[in-house]
Design the sequence.
């Protein structure tokens, strides 16, 4: 009897084992199949999560000035979006008014202890800080970033933040100068509108036909000061510095010709007002005269788009400035640089790159009319081009292909002094106290003294 019971129990155990084994095979197969599906889905779905989300939390300190005076909430929205996208990076930021900005920045950079990881800087000051060894070389950081392509940005704008061949910052946005023209005045004379192929001679011929001094209408208006001068000489193949970047060539034939052209438009050809007129001596008088329909062609900045859209009493558009031997345009930039002793290199670069080319930032700048992004992507920038007037909005970014940087030369730390000595001589020539050649000969001597 005991034997029969034992045999029965043994049989039951064998059957149970059989069922358990079959169930185990099915579960294992289901688990394997499930894991296979997960792996397949992983391979089919791009990883959109930034690598930084897996990194350790880090806080970077950032200071800037351009949001001051009405863009504070715009900057906050950009940073909030960044911190959502890169949840491991916190941006501790401060907005400082322009009048105090560089004083404070110079102080904290010199002290070191309170220096920010990332800070906003215009080109002129960027070069000064780079020359003093205050910036981190980010060449290798940029090169190792597989997600960043230099072709994503306008090349000359990207290269502007190099120093001694090293990438020391990144341009985020800019403004520039172009030529505005009054379509109504051109139409009244039956003249074709300016185009990108125009030279100084084309401008002069049109200006002669458009000028009507009895009605206070001038064919063309351009300022005569240091910034306008170094751009205009570039349009004639001239430069303050020679090709070696050290020799002073401000009194070259090309530079003298360009200065003479700037003067002759007022005194010889009489197609623009005398430099003693209200248009030149009163603040903002030039662009206000354009709004009133008194100027046919005006060299001025892209920052006037909103003003002219609201207040101009004429139909207007823009075009690249005429050159003599080549095109050349102003480039007033905002960029970001990293402090030399920052230990947050990768996180800081992630933020810098974001502020330059991220679609959210670019679109926000466009929507808020906050300067011009440097993104080299017409699909993204199309929203900017569609915001008219001006009708030819793309000209505002086309100028980046012929941008001219301030001529800091080998003495970027003395840019303010260079401006002063050059400006003094330009003033003498502008008012006929000396000839263009005499003015630039004197400027050359003064600039060479700055080199000593």
Sequence:
């Amino acid at each position: 009897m005991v034997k029969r019971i034992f045999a029965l129990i043994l049989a039951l155990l064998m059957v149970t084992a059989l069922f358990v084994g079959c169930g185990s095979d099915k579960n294992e197969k289901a688990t394997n199949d499930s894991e296979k599906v997960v792996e397949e889905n992983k391979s089919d779905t791009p990883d959109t999560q930034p690598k930084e989300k897996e990194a350790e939390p880090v806080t970077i300190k950032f200071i800037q000035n351009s949001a001051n005076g009405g863009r504070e909430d715009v900057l906050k929205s950009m940073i909030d979006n960044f911190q959502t996208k890169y949840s491991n990076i916190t941006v501790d930021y401060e907005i400082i008014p322009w009048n105090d900005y560089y004083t404070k920045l110079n102080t904290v950079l010199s002290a070191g202890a309170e220096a920010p990881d990332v800070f906003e800087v215009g080109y002129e000051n960027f070069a000064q800080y780079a020359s003093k060894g205050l910036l981190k070389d980010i060449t290798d950081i940029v090169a190792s970033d597989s997600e960043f392509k230099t072709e994503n940005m306008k090349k000359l704008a990207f290269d502007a933040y190099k120093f001694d061949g090293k990438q020391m910052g990144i341009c985020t946005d800019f403004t520039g100068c172009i030529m505005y023209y009054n379509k109504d005045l051109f139409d009244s004379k039956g003249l074709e509108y300016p185009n990108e192929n125009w030279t100084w001679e084309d401008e002069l011929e049109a200006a002669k036909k458009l000028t009507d001094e009895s009605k206070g209408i001038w064919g063309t208006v351009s300022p005569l000061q240091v910034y306008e001068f170094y751009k205009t000489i570039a349009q004639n193949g001239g430069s303050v510095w020679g090709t070696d970047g050290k020799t002073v060539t401000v009194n070259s034939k090309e530079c003298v010709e360009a200065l003479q052209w700037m003067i002759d438009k007022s005194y010889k050809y009489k197609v623009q007002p005398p430099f003693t007129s209200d248009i030149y001596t009163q603040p903002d008088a030039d662009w206000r005269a354009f709004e009133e329909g008194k100027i046919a062609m005006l060299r001025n900045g892209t920052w006037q788009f909103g003003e002219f859209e609201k207040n101009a009493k004429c139909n207007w558009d823009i075009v690249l400035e005429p050159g003599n031997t080549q095109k050349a345009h102003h480039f007033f930039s905002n960029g970001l640089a990293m402090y030399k002793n920052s230990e947050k290199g990768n996180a800081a670069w992630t933020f810098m790159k974001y502020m330059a080319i991220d679609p959210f930032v670019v679109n926000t700048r466009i929507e808020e009319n906050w300067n011009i992004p440097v993104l080299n992507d017409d699909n993204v920038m199309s929203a900017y081009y569609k915001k008219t007037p001006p009708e030819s909005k793309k000209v505002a970014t086309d100028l980046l292909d012929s941008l001219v940087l301030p001529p800091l030369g080998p003495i970027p730390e003395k840019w303010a002094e260079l401006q002063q000595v050059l400006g003094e001589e330009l003033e003498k020539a502008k008012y006929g106290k000396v000839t263009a050649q005499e003015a630039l000969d004197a400027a050359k001597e003064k600039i060479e003294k700055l080199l000593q």
Remarks:
- Residues 1-53 have pLDDT under 50 and may be disordered.
- The chain has two domains: 53-175+333-386, 176-331+394-451.
